[in-house]
Design brief:
MetI-like fold; 12 helices; mainly alpha; 292 residues
Length: 292
């Protein structure tokens, strides 16, 4: 644990891009964790999903910073609540896909031989499968779709990307001197993987998790926009679906469309900043080009 915390602290100090990306991500995570009191404060104690007594289609004002929707509901409170559901799907799908991909990558990369060939071929099969049409089909014909079931479906199709990326790193690390020394000291494969290889790949695994979570959030948005997302759950994609169905932009109610788009763009921006920062830290060529 101390080694992990030292690695995170060193990474934090080494790149300004990583710092900015993490700050943006932490901000949204805090909003999601505290969404109930924040939404209640912003929406003046009303439920973001219940029809309100407020006037519909209000423009942004002092009482409603982003205005109201067709039913008088506060758009900002809806955005905070929708962010929570979207992040929940992202975290569940990201964790599942990262765990599966990491296990497959370490076993394939470290064992090599026939095990590596079989797992790599199995991973390649999932990589070439057109995931989004299958997700549409499964979501359309699955009864009682909820956030967890959607997250599991998304994880099934997103783990191969993490597996391929991490496997390449394991292949480069398994021939390092400290791994050979661990073999000489008669450490078994399980101990070498978790004590020697895993700590060195934690940044890559973390970035893989962030990418998988973000990809799952955008996939959920795609399902919601075409009307196949979870029912009775407010997320950012559902807000985009409503704005399209109601013709919000033609009515001048731009906030219900712009708010979720801005949140999604900032999430994408933060993950990309972390990716670029890590590349500059761990890739000497990029570090030299960036002048770090």
């Amino acid at each position: 644990m101390d080694r992990f915390l030292l690695a995170i602290l060193s990474l934090w100090r080494s790149s300004r891009k990583v710092q900015v990306g993490i700050v943006i991500m932490v901000f949204f995570i805090l909003l999601a964790l505290l969404h109930t009191p924040i939404a209640a404060l912003i929406g003046h104690g009303t439920d973001p999903l219940e029809i309100s007594v407020n006037a519909p289609w209000q423009q942004p004002n002092i009482q409603h910073w982003l205005g109201t929707d067709r039913y008088g509901r506060d758009v900002l409170a809806m955005t905070v609540t929708g962010l929570t559901a979207s992040l929940e799907v992202g975290v569940i799908a990201g964790l599942l896909s990262t765990v599966i991909g990491t296990v497959v990558a370490f076993v394939a990369g470290y064992m090599g031989g026939k095990v590596d060939s079989f797992l790599s071929s199995f991973t390649d099969v999932f990589l070439v499968v057109p995931s989004f049409p299958l997700l549409i089909t499964l979501a359309a014909y699955t009864n009682n779709v909820n956030l967890v079931s959607v997250a599991v479906l998304l994880a099934v199709f997103s783990w191969p990307f993490a597996a391929r990326t991490i496997r390449a790193q394991v292949l480069s690390l398994r021939s390092r001197p400290y791994v050979e020394l661990a073999k000489v000291t008669r450490m078994n494969a399980f101990e070498i993987i978790f004590q020697e290889l895993l700590p060195n790949l934690l940044p890559f695994i973390g970035v893989g998790f962030a990418n998988a979570a973000l990809g799952s959030i955008f996939a959920l948005v795609g399902l919601e926009v075409i009307g196949l997302g979870p029912g009775n759950v407010l997320d950012l994609g559902l807000m985009l679906n409503w704005s399209q169905a109601w013709g919000a932009l033609s009515l001048g109610a731009w906030a219900i469309f712009v708010a979720p788009v801005v949140v999604l763009a900032l999430l994408f921006f933060s993950v990309n900043l972390i990716n670029i920062g890590l590349e500059e830290v761990y890739n000497p060529r990029l570090r030299k080009t960036a002048g770090a």
